[in-house]
């Protein structure tokens, strides 16, 4: 829900004295050490895997109880950690994160106060690329599991940590990890992966003053399409039938004017249902009296609100155009455009291709450049979900946890065959301006307090689900 007024998460912290035995000084130092490793993934051929090797070594040497009770191994350059539970009847709990980080944007190096791969730790902050996406979660999951083992010994339920190597690029690592789990016959009751990491005011939902936090139960699909219109070129004095560029623009306009209809998917319907008693403004107040019956109207309303638009629409962004002529009096040859679409769960790549070809006509060639289908839609409630809601309620009182969907991608979608419920929610809650600047930007850093609180959330979630 970007674009909403954000609340200062520190104002919501509670029970910061939980788990007094947590080694927070050591945890900050270990996160700094992980951030000092430049785990930037490029391609299998061109990636420098030495930092990935070093991260694996750091994990193996930093968590003695995980090493003693569990098994830490590599699948390619991805990492799989299994702490077997004492009750083999129980399905596992799966905690996800990715090792890779995006590189520093060229030209912004000078703007960083500390080396983005220096692992600088001071009184208040832990600095470096990956501090918010998503090494804090990777190392935080390890800290939580290590402390859980120190407090309780082996859990009843098996705990699996899976860290892909290339989430920012192609998720081949997560695909291989999931295949390995499937090969071993492992099934997880639930998983937790990165997700929305901010609190937001629910004003766009008609409930101003209510602070909400999303647990995402699905994710949108990703599709790059290239449209091509062939052209002969030639002199502009007889553009009979339109130039290739003109016909391409007409095709784009037809798509823009006839978008796929907005739709209320399950988790977004649940958002409105959860918020219903708190909704005070129209037209939402009347509509949420019967969310199911008014689903189409609610979807149309949400589509008209910037913050909610991507939650109910298969969106299309026209991002690139090519083939324009070198001179004003020369007609262009082949003209191309690339469109980036984000597919609502339930809308397939085939649906989009049928919609496209129905509107643009046969002379426009449509080519799929890259596609990741939308995720499965899981139900709110049940194992993992209920405990996560309870834990967020304890540590962030005054916020309401609502089901939703992710508009960006995560590795989670790769684990659908081995996991019953895929939850996406980042327990580390930086202030809004920190996130806006640091995530894939400059001076990425995490406050020690935010890091500690996220570890408590993970620890409490494990205590409630695996003991
Ligand atoms: Zn990420």
UniProtKB/TrEMBL annotation:
Highest taxon above the source species: Bacteria
Protein name: M20/M25/M40 family metallo-hydrolase
Keyword Zinc: yes
Keyword list, A-Z: Hydrolase, Metal-binding, Protease, Zinc
Upper taxonomic lineage: Bacteria, Bacillati, Actinomycetota, Coriobacteriia, Coriobacteriales
Pfam families: M20_dimer, Peptidase_M20
Keyword Protease on entry: yes
Record-linked Gene3D superfamilies: 1.10.150.900, 3.30.70.360, Zn peptidases (3.40.630.10)
Matches recorded under InterPro entries: Bact_exopeptidase_dim_dom (IPR036264), Pept_M20A (IPR047177), Peptidase_M20 (IPR002933), Peptidase_M20_dimer (IPR011650)
Residue intervals of the Peptidase M20 dimerisation domain: 218-354
Homology family: Belongs to the peptidase M20A family.
């Amino acid at each position: 829900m970007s674009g909403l007024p954000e609340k200062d998460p520190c104002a919501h912290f509670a029970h910061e004295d939980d788990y007094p035995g947590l080694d927070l000084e050591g945890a900050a130092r270990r996160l700094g050490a992980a951030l000092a490793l430049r785990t930037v993934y490029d391609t299998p051929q061109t990636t420098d895997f030495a930092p990935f090797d070093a991260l694996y070594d750091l994990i193996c040497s930093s968590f003695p109880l995980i090493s003693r009770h569990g098994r830490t191994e590599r699948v390619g350059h991805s990492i799989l950690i299994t702490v077997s539970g004492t009750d083999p009847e129980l399905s596992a709990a799966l905690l996800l994160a990715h090792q890779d980080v995006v590189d520093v944007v060229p030209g912004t190096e000078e703007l960083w106060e500390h080396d983005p791969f220096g692992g600088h730790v001071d009184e208040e902050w832990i600095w470096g690329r990956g501090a918010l996406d998503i090494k804090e979660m990777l190392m935080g999951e390890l800290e939580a599991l290590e402390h859980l083992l120190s407090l309780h010994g082996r859990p009843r339920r098996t705990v699996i940590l899976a860290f892909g190597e290339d989430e920012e690029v192609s998720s081949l690592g997560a695909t291989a990890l999931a295949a390995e789990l499937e090969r071993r016959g492992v099934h997880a009751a639930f998983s937790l992966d990165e997700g929305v990491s901010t609190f937001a005011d629910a004003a766009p939902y008609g409930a101003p003053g209510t602070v909400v936090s999303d647990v995402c139960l699905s994710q949108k699909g990703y599709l790059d399409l290239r449209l091509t219109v062939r052209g002969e070129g030639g002199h502009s004095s007889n553009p009979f039938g339109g130039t290739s560029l003109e016909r391409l623009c007409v095709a784009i306009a037809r798509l823009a004017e006839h978008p796929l209809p907005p739709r209320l998917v399950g988790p977004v319907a649940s958002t409105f249902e959860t918020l219903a008693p708190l909704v005070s403004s129209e037209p939402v107040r009347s509509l949420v009296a019967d969310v199911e019956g008014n689903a189409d109207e609610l979807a149309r309303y949400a589509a008209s609100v910037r913050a909610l638009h991507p939650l109910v629409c298969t969106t299309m962004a026209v991002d690139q155009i090519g083939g324009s002529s070198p001179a004003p009096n020369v007609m262009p040859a082949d003209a191309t455009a690339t469109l980036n679409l984000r597919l609502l769960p339930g809308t397939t790549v085939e649906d989009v291709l049928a919609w496209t070809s129905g509107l643009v006509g046969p002379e426009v060639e449509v080519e799929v450049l890259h596609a990741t289908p939308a995720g499965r839609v899981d139900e709110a409630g049940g194992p993992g979900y209920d405990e996560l809601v309870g834990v967020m309620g304890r540590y962030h009182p005054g916020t309401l946890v609502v089901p939703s969907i992710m508009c960006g991608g995560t590795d989670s979608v790769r684990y659908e065959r081995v996991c019953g419920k895929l939850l996406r929610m980042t327990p580390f809650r930086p202030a809004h301006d920190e996130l806006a600047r640091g995530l894939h930007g400059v001076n990425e850093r995490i406050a020690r307090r935010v890091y500690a609180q996220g570890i408590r959330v993970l620890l409490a979630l494990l205590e409630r689900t695996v003991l």
